[in-house]
Amino acid sequence: MPRTKTPAFVSSRGNASAQCASLKSLAQHLQLSPATVSLVINRSPAAKSIPQRTQDRIRLAARELNYRPNFMARSLRQQRSFTIGVVVPEISEGYAALVMAGIEDHLLQEGYFYFVVSHRHRSDLIEEYPTLLQQRAVEGLIAVDTACSEGVAIPLVSVSGHRELPGVSNIVLNHARAARLAVEHLAQLGHRKIAFIKGQAFSSDTESRWEAVKAAAIDLKVSFNERLTAQLEGESSSPQLGYEATRKILDRRESFSALFAFNDISAIGAIRALREAGRRVPEDVSVVGFDDIQSAAFQNPGLTTVRQPLREMGVIAAETLLRRINAPAKSSYPKTITIEPELIVRASTAPLS
Amino acid sequence: MPRTKTPAFVSSRGNASAQCASLKSLAQHLQLSPATVSLVINRSPAAKSIPQRTQDRIRLAARELNYRPNFMARSLRQQRSFTIGVVVPEISEGYAALVMAGIEDHLLQEGYFYFVVSHRHRSDLIEEYPTLLQQRAVEGLIAVDTACSEGVAIPLVSVSGHRELPGVSNIVLNHARAARLAVEHLAQLGHRKIAFIKGQAFSSDTESRWEAVKAAAIDLKVSFNERLTAQLEGESSSPQLGYEATRKILDRRESFSALFAFNDISAIGAIRALREAGRRVPEDVSVVGFDDIQSAAFQNPGLTTVRQPLREMGVIAAETLLRRINAPAKSSYPKTITIEPELIVRASTAPLS
DNA sequence: ACAACCCGCTAAATCGATTTACCCCGTGAT
DNA sequence: ATCACGGGGTAAATCGATTTAGCGGGTTGT
Predict the structure, then answer these.
(1) What are the angstrom distances between the C-alpha of B26 and each of A69, B15, B64, B66?
(2) Which residue among B17, B94, B136 places its CB closest to the CB of A71?
(3) Cβ–Cβ contact A348 with B under 8 A
(4) Is the pLDDT assigned to residue A331 strictly greater than 80?
(5) Residue range B121-166, pLDDT digits in tens
(6) Is A104 on the interface with B (CB under 8 A)?
């Protein structure tokens, strides 16, 4: 039997304004049972036997008393949180931010919210965050440019993850085509000696991109010279890495008339290194970036780059995830979704003079 | 009396792996009551009368059965969500992304998660999102560069909000000092004829910054010439706006040797306009930006700018909010926290030749 | 006349924890 | 012998919804 009875509606936290109104109080006010009110408010099919009159009364009162269903109670009962988790390497980087913008667009439209966490390439965090998010009852995960561990019990969509894992849907760029677009563009401008900058080992795009670049170079009869390649080194995402890689290439004193960087950020660093070495861009050296982050267009000169439709990739990731979440149990799911890149020609490339 | 009994632990959703283990099942396994287990697991003071032996048994079993408290159940009972909401104009913009990085840092450290929403300056969304977030049971809100409506029942911290509202803590830059830093720098380089670009009307920083700039100009005896000022126009956050504003100024054929833009993005557009008009930067015209977003350092030449410590501002916002959330009820809260700017001199400014 | 149904609604179980108010037993003090 | 007290727990209320089984009474069908 009950020991104590609190006086009802004495909220313990200091909310001065009228945010209360539970289902129970609303029902009491209406002289109805909570069950009835719930049925009507949720437009449950079971409410069809309730006359319109009563329904109107209920809805009116709900509006007047400013009834807002308690989200946690509802989640607990229904075992749904309408929340998903997004794991990114770093929020303040153009890449992830653009993907997130797309994710947000679609999720909010569908009534979902999302938690964001950034792991800054720390492997302990990469392990820990998915678990933490699952404890927060997220219904699915999106991992951006992150090689996620397996063993997640919930649907997972990976953007540029590049690991075929059971239970994971991959959204990947068509790297073969992307590399070809860039190399072809340079080749058409007359460039034959092209320098290449390779990505850091930890970036999940590095390997597939590199293979694609090699293939494109060979295919298009462009020399692929080891002495004209360098790899980005270091955790940070600053143009400094591209600057250093380019310096290395320059120091080898091999001649080249074009450079294809791993991404826009490194392309920007490369341009600085080239200028310092007295080479003008694009007159002496043409430079192509990758990604088309916002600052690519902001460069002077504007950066020619292979555009990844990052925002769209975010939207597609969100769509795919929600489809999986709302699919009838263990049904099949897409393993890989390939996205087509686009070459954006700006002012950092020019014909071989 | 009970009508139906489900066979216990037959989860209706298709989770193959072992994620179950409720408090009840754990208690059953241990031949103890849920109450005891809960007390021990939460290290509640009431558990001090329980012998170490039992405590160890409980913790061991919890580990073995991989017990994870159900977040929603716990939230419901405790009326706490450990979640806050962050409202930004646009995720994929350097400004908000940097503030968010700071917010995240601190929140996750303290065991909080956050929802992000972006309103893209749509006033209906600015109205709607705070309500939506409150329905999601967030314990507080951070609004970044957003003139939030009043009437929020939960603690609100505003970063660059610039509206003194009851219940709101404002984090603002010391604009007087910021303007002075920039103008003084240019004046010391010998510039007297300086062009100024003013921000869009919807940006909450625009007015205070503008006043500060005028005051600094007058104070430092730099001419403040209406014909050398222009305002950014348009919703987008692209350098194009700065480009157009600068064109307007150039078209007036008034001579100037330096330009102070509203922010880095517009400074980048300005540089492009100046170059196209045959003016070199910094040899003919020095340019100063504002914010120090990542791409400021990435510019060629590197952009001299007034740095807002955006990441730190995010951390401070999060700290302030958590302090308010965990403060004993209606206690007082900081109304305004002023942040000091810093001048970052790069290569876009040079002495008057 | 009795079953079958429909209408309008409700009781009560449930989701999975937290937390308060005891309870029972043994020991030491009076 | 009785009381007080502390140790080692537990029962049950509670958070705020959702949802199923079913109740009472009137109508219809046969």
Answers:
(1) 31, 19, 10, 10
(2) B136
(3) no
(4) no
(5) 999 999 999 999 999 999 999 999 998 877 788 999 999 988 888 8
(6) yes
